[in-house]
Amino acid sequence: MSALLLVAALAASTQTLPAIPKLPLETYEASVRAPIEQALRAAEAQPRDAERAGQLGMVLYANEQYEFAAACFARAQALAPDEPRWPYFLGRTQSNLATEDRGMAALRRTLRLQPDYLPAQVLLAKALVESGQTAEGRQLYEALLRARPDTAEAHYALGKLDAAGGQADAAIEHLRRACALWPSFGAAHFALARLYRDRGRAEEAQAEVDLYEKDKLGWPTVPDPFMSALASLKGGAAARLDKGVQLAEAGQLQAAAEEHEAALRADPKLLLAHVNLIRIYGTLGQNDRAEEHYRAGVALDPNLAELHYNHGVVLMGEGRGAEAAEAFRRAVELKPTYADAQNNYAYLLMSSGKLDEAVEHYQAAIAARPDHRAAHFNLGRILVNRGKLAEAIDQLAQTLEPDDEDSPRCTYALGAAYARAGNRSEALKYLTQARAKAEARGQADLVASIDKDLRRLEAGGR
């Protein structure tokens, strides 16, 4: 009898176990198909192995095959019911697919297995609110903040709930906290701006709108070890491009170039790869290759400002100032709010003696990005030479931060402007600070120049 019961139980479990999905492999591009097919064969070879089913789901998820991934994660969960990764991935996948319960059942299972997993807590709370279960969602957000008060997304969500409930003061406090924790949180700045506007606090509302405009899509990241494991599984051109960008940011430029070239072999119309390769090859000193990618990018889209800007940077490095100026002019024509392009164009105009035009473009750079240090510095230099010392000092005073290799030079320029204006005490103050900063950084030539000016100033001159 017991043997018969065992056979019956095994038959029942086989019937309820989600099947390995039938995948349309022939529809995938080769670079995507290879890792998916490899994972599929492994899962089929050991059909009772939860890890292999889950790995297939992860590869599918990484390549945005969410429906097939969901089936694999459900299978892995059934095979290994005590492993928290599989219900978590299933919950995320169902959330992406906007299923009826938004993955909430799977996320609850994750939290039963690993109660303190922050990404699952945040995702479940969000799903609860979006599904209309706001009371439970609020409770989860509040519990989350008691344990982790620095969770910006929870403050944002509670701020939105408070605003919807007419509790403006509480909403403002939560949203301000969200913005303080994550300064580039675009949605939180926008929500805060609306509350300030509704209360007649126009200046504060405008300040928040300005911050929102700087990074509309900014959103706080939550460390997610489970999802981090998917990053290396993505195939295709986009994955090679992502890897290339990461290598470039790490300073591994030759490897970055190779990944970008591989991305272009997978997708010859990947315009961003051309844009990045112009800069990468220019930095490597391979200017002919940079020029090739500029031409290829222009053939795909001649109206992308970043193409012309990166080309201008390469030309500038070669000393081809007139051609670089034309490239930057084209970039700012296409995108007037492109602060770096405005600044570089202004610099070349200034270098060629076209000071009125240079001032106009430095001001445009600052309007687009108020903390643009180089634009403030060079605009200040022009104003000093024109004798507009109060305006120059105002510009140069905005160049003192951050504290880096440029700080001594910026501080020196501010001190010199005060000296020209006849303000001896402020001149001494900033020149002394500049000297200390330059000496700390081993900038001997700058120290010598500052010492010369300090002796003049202490002797009663300017």
Please tell me about this protein's structure.
The protein has 26 helices and no strands. Among the domains are: 16-115, Serine Threonine Protein Phosphatase 5, Tetratricopeptide repeat (Alpha Horseshoe), CATH 1.25.40.10; 142-223, Serine Threonine Protein Phosphatase 5, Tetratricopeptide repeat (Alpha Horseshoe); 388-462, Serine Threonine Protein Phosphatase 5, Tetratricopeptide repeat (Alpha Horseshoe), CATH 1.25.40. It has helices spanning 2-16, 30-45, 50-62, 66-79, 85-96, 104-113, 118-130, 134-147, 152-164, 168-181, 186-198, 202-214, 225-228, 236-249, 253-266, 271-284, 287-300, 305-317, 321-334, 339-351, 355-368, 373-385, 389-396, 407-420, 424-440, 444-458. It is mainly α and 462 residues long. Helix 3 runs antiparallel to helix 4 (66-79) and helix 11 runs antiparallel to helix 12. The protein is globular. Helix content is 74%, strand content 0%.
